[in-house]
């Protein structure tokens, strides 16, 4: 579960392309943020997994800076983060992916979403 709207910032779009993939494929998270009345500068999106040592998943943009939302009712446009499995040792592995949004240089995330990703080893 995660927060989809908080303090005037919301996910206009948030989608994981595939939650089940084979180890020779990849999946993408597409996101677009929108503000209401409040302005948001220095928007940072971080993507982490429970693969703590990065042994099995590669995230092409673990940290992504988005454009400021300096006028009411704007959005950041679509942004894509690609996750690619590699060296999958088991027939099936499940990972938790956490996407967090930080705004206005705040150390506490404004938005958060968790996804589950199943990777099946390609024989």
How would you describe this protein?
- There is one protein chain.
- By secondary structure, the chain is mostly beta strands.
- Helices cover about 0% and strands about 50% of the residues.
- The protein has no helices and 10 strands.
- It has strands spanning about 5, 10-15, 20, 25-35, 45-50, 55-60, 65, 80-85, 90-100, 110-120.
- The strands form 2 sheets. Strands 1-2-4-8-6 form a 5-stranded antiparallel beta sheet, with no helix packed on it. It has a 5-stranded mixed beta sheet with strand order 3-10-9-5-7, with no helix packed on it.
- The protein is elongated.
- The protein starts with a strand and ends with a strand.
- The model has no long low-confidence stretch (mean pLDDT about 90).
Short recap of the structure:
The chain is an all-beta fold and 123 residues long. Helices cover 0% and strands 52% of the residues.
């Amino acid at each position: 579960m995660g927060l989809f709207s908080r303090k005037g910032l919301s996910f206009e779009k948030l989608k994981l392309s595939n939650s089940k993939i084979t180890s020779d494929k990849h999946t993408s998270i597409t996101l677009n943020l929108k503000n209401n009345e409040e302005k948001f500068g220095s928007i940072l999106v971080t993507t982490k997994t429970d693969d703590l040592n990065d042994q099995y998943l590669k995230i092409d943009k673990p940290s992504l800076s988005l454009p400021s939302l300096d006028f009411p009712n704007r959005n950041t446009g679509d942004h894509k983060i690609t996750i690619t499995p590699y060296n999958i040792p088991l027939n099936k592995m499940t990972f938790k992916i956490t996407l967090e949004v930080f705004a206005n240089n705040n150390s506490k995330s404004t938005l958060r979403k968790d996804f589950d990703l199943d990777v099946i080893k390609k024989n």
